[in-house]
Write a structure and sequence with these properties.
Layout lengths: L2 H11 L2 H11 L49 H4 L12 E2 L2 H4 L8 E3 L6 E7 L4 H9 L1 H9 L4 E7 L4 H11 L11 H13 L1 H4 L5 H11 L4 H8 L2 H18 L6 E4 L2 E4 L4 H11 L1
Parallel strand pairs: 3-4
Antiparallel strand pairs: 1-6, 2-4, 3-5, 5-6
Helix pairs in contact: 5-8, 6-13, 7-8, 7-12
């Protein structure tokens, strides 16, 4: 390995303290659903508390009834249907014709080209909110809208830290031939694995070893892993995708979704994104 390659690997995979901080703070959007009077923050290095969600629990008590009479009562709460999710509010407009122009890297597209709804997600692989979306929402949206031809989905790289950039590079490289780029059929499963195992590698003390072990599950060898992560052009292209999103489309937090000419920031539940998509059909 040359000195320049060693330097690139060091920049990508060392500095566990920086990466650990990025996991919980830097790479994610503010909690936009908090009802506060604070002005929105746009700095990419802004820190904020991660959302804490407590699963709702339902409690009920069994009521003993007489053996001679049985009374069944139904309360309004028991019969009320789940309220429809509100359509998320957009934060701004974007020109989708410009958004969909080719960039530094080929777009990772799933879905029909003529689908009435186009969703472009800017994400960081070390962002917990991005992981929450991909682990809890993405599969349901894909099954309901992408696979049915109603929407197409595009993931674009927006790394906030070197370890996130390294993970994206690995998603872009073919494990057997890292000089070639993957297609969507290979890219999305790698992203899914990285999101599901985010806590395992994103804040690990030894970032190189953690990512190497994850990559081996996708078919990388130590040699192809090293070749991918020392590809300076690929790193430059990943960063160019991020810079374009920030400069041209106002992306300042992850995840950010550009959907049919509107920009939305923050994680979305299945119900929220479904309501948004339905409003556009």
């Amino acid at each position: 390995m040359s000195l320049s390659e060693m330097s690139l690997m060091k920049r990508l995979l060392t500095g566990a303290a920086v990466a650990a901080l990025a996991v919980t703070l830097a790479a994610c959007s503010d909690e936009k659903k908090e009802e506060t009077a604070k002005a929105p923050e746009t700095s990419q290095t802004t820190t904020g508390e991660s959302a804490s969600s407590t699963p709702a629990t339902s409690t009920g008590t069994a009521t003993e009834t007489s053996t001679t009479t049985t009374t069944t009562t139904t309360t309004p709460a028991e019969t009320a249907q789940k309220p429809a999710a509100e359509v998320p509010s957009a934060e701004g407009d974007v020109d989708m014709a410009e958004v969909l122009k080719p960039g530094a890297l080929p777009d990772m597209v799933i879905g029909e080209a003529n689908a009435p709804v186009t969703i472009v997600e800017y994400m960081s692989t070390t962002c917990p909110h991005c992981a929450a979306f991909h682990n809890n929402t993405f599969d349901a949206i894909k099954a309901k809208y992408v696979d049915s031809g109603k929407a197409r989905f595009i993931v674009r790289e927006f790394p906030f830290d070197p370890r996130a950039a390294a993970a994206f590079m690995l998603a872009r490289c073919k494990p057997q031939n890292p000089a070639e780029l993957t297609d969507a059929a290979q890219y999305y499963p790698m992203i899914s694995m990285l999101m599901k195992q985010q806590e395992t590698w994103a804040a690990a003390q030894d970032g190189r070893e953690a990512l190497l072990q994850m990559s081996k599950l996708a078919g990388f060898t130590q040699e192809s892993f090293q070749a991918c992560l020392t590809n300076q052009k690929l790193l430059d292209d990943v960063n160019a995708v991020r810079e374009r999103g920030a400069k041209e489309f106002g992306v300042a937090a992850t995840p950010t979704f550009l959907i049919n000419g509107k920009r939305y920031s923050g994680d979305m539940s299945v119900d929220s994104m479904s309501a948004l998509i339905e409003s556009l059909l």
